[in-house]
Write a structure and sequence with these properties.
TIM Barrel; globular; alpha/beta; 35% helix; binds zinc ion; six-stranded parallel sheet; four-stranded antiparallel sheet; 17% strand
Length: 367
C-alpha cells in the first residue's frame, strides 16, 4: 500500500437541507457523506427550501443540530436577500458564529429573481460594519457580477468570494481585480470541470443545476485555470434531491423552465466522490497534488479567515491509499448521500480513504 497524509479537505459550499421542506438530506447524513469523501470541515449555505437562515434563531437551530449530529465539523453561513428584511439580524448572526454572508444574485433554489448590486447595498454595508473580517459569498447573476465586485471590494474593501464560477470570462474578470490587490477569490465546482451541458440532453433534471453545466470548451478551460491556480478553490455545491424529486421535475417540466410557476429541482449530490476523483486527476498529472491541497485546504482557510490551530492540518487530516490497488470505478454501492444517487457513478476513483480526523477526532476509519 502506498499511503499519503493530506490536510483534511474543506468544502465551503454544501446544502445539507436541514431544517427544510426538502427531505433529501440531513446534517447527520450529509456530514457522514462528507467524511467518507475526506472532508474534515464543511460549510452549509442558508437557502434551505422553505426555511432560510435569515434569523439568529434559525442559525442557532442549525448549530445545535450539528453539535449533536454532525460527523465532521460543520459551520454555517447567514443569509440575507432584499426581500428578507433581516438586516437587523445580521449582527447577532455574525456573533452567533456565522462564518460569512451568502447572497443570491440570481434565480436558484429559494430565489426566483435576478437582482442589481444596488438591491444589496444596505445588506453589504451592515455586514461590513458587523463582520468586517467575514467574507461575502456570492451567487452572481447574469449581469450583476462586476457591479457587485465593485460595490463589495472597492467601496467597502470587503472580501468577496464568487461561488461556482462557470466561465473563463468570469475568472479573468475576477483575476483582474485580484492582481490590483482587491480582496476577492473564487471557487469552481467539480461538475463544472468534469461534466458538460450535453448531459442535460440525456439525463434531464439529473444534470440540471444553477449555474448550469458548461460546454466542453469551457469545462476544459476551467480545468486549466483551476490547475494553474487562477481559480482559488474547489467547492462542491453539494445540493441533494432524491430521485423522486428529480423525476417529478422531469415529468412536470421537461424543458427546464426556470419560473416560480414550474416545478424545478436544481443541484447535484456526490460529495463523497469528489476527492477520490480529484486524486485520479493527480495520477494523470492533470493537476498537481500541491494544487489539490491548496484548493481544498489552504485557500478555504484563507477565505474564511479560520484559525489554523483549530482547523489546520494538525487536528484535521486524511490518510489516503493511492496505490494502484486503490483505483476503482465508483459504483452505486459507494453512494452515502441521502439523495441515494451520485452523478459520479462510473467515474474513476484514484484513491481510497483510510482514515479521517476532524477537529482532533477520528471520524472515519476503513477496517
Ligand atoms: Zn449552492
Amino acid at each position: 500500500m502506498s499511503i499519503i497524509k493530506l490536510p483534511g479537505a474543506i468544502d465551503l459550499h454544501v446544502h445539507l437541507r436541514e431544517p427544510s421542506d426538502n427531505k433529501a438530506e440531513t446534517i447527520k447524513n450529509g456530514s457522514l457523506a462528507a467524511a467518507h469523501g475526506g472532508f474534515s470541515l464543511i460549510c452549509d449555505m442558508p437557502n434551505n427550501p422553505g426555511n432560510p437562515t435569515w434569523t439568529v434563531a434559525k442559525l442557532k437551530e442549525k448549530i445545535a443540530i450539528a453539535k449533536k449530529n454532525a460527523t465532521v465539523t460543520t459551520l454555517f453561513y447567514a443569509g440575507s436577500q432584499p426581500e428578507s428584511n433581516n438586516i437587523a439580524q445580521l449582527e447577532s448572526m455574525a456573533s452567533a458564529g456565522a462564518v460569512g454572508l451568502k447572497l443570491y444574485g440570481a434565480p436558484t433554489t429559494g430565489n426566483d429573481k435576478d437582482y442589481t448590486a444596488k438591491d444589496f447595498e444596505q445588506i453589504i454595508k451592515e455586514w461590513h460594519r458587523v463582520a468586517p473580517d467575514k467574507p461575502i459569498m456570492l451567487h452572481a447573476g447574469a449581469d450583476n457580477l462586476e457591479d457587485l465586485i465593485n460595490l463589495v471590494t472597492k467601496k467597502y474593501s470587503h472580501h468577496l468570494h464568487i461561488c461556482h464560477v462557470h466561465s473563463s470570462k468570469a475568472v479573468k474578470l475576477i483575476n483582474s481585480y485580484k492582481t490590483k490587490g482587491y480582496k476577492i477569490s473564487c471557487g469552481v465546482c467539480p461538475h463544472h470541470l468534469l461534466k458538460t451541458s450535453h448531459e442535460t440532453l440525456g439525463k434531464g433534471w439529473f444534470s440540471r443545476m444553477q449555474p448550469p453545466l458548461a460546454n466542453q470548451d469551457e469545462a476544459e478551460s476551467l480545468l486549466k485555470l483551476f490547475a494553474g491556480g487562477a481559480i482559488d478553490l474547489l467547492e462542491s455545491d453539494y445540493a441533494p434531491h432524491t430521485k423522486d424529486y428529480k423525476l417529478a421535475a422531469e415529468t412536470n417540466n421537461p424543458h427546464g423552465v426556470h419560473k416560480p410557476t414550474h416545478t424545478t429541482c436544481f443541484g447535484v449530490p456526490g460529495i463523497e466522490h469528489i476527492m477520490p476523483i480529484m486524486l485520479s486527476l493527480v495520477r494523470k498529472n492533470i493537476i498537481s497534488l500541491d494544487r489539490l491541497i491548496d484548493a481544498t485546504h489552504t485557500q478555504p482557510i484563507k477565505v474564511l479567515g479560520l484559525d489554523k490551530n483549530t482547523f489546520g492540518p494538525a487536528k484535521n487530516y486524511a490518510k489516503w491509499d493511492i496505490s494502484d490497488q486503490s483505483v476503482k470505478r465508483i459504483s452505486e454501492k459507494d453512494v452515502i448521500s441521502g439523495s441515494d444517487w451520485s452523478p459520479y457513478v462510473g467515474y474513476i476513483a484514484g484513491g481510497k480513504l483510510i482514515k479521517l480526523v476532524s477537529s482532533g477526532k477520528i471520524v472515519h476509519e476503513t477496517k
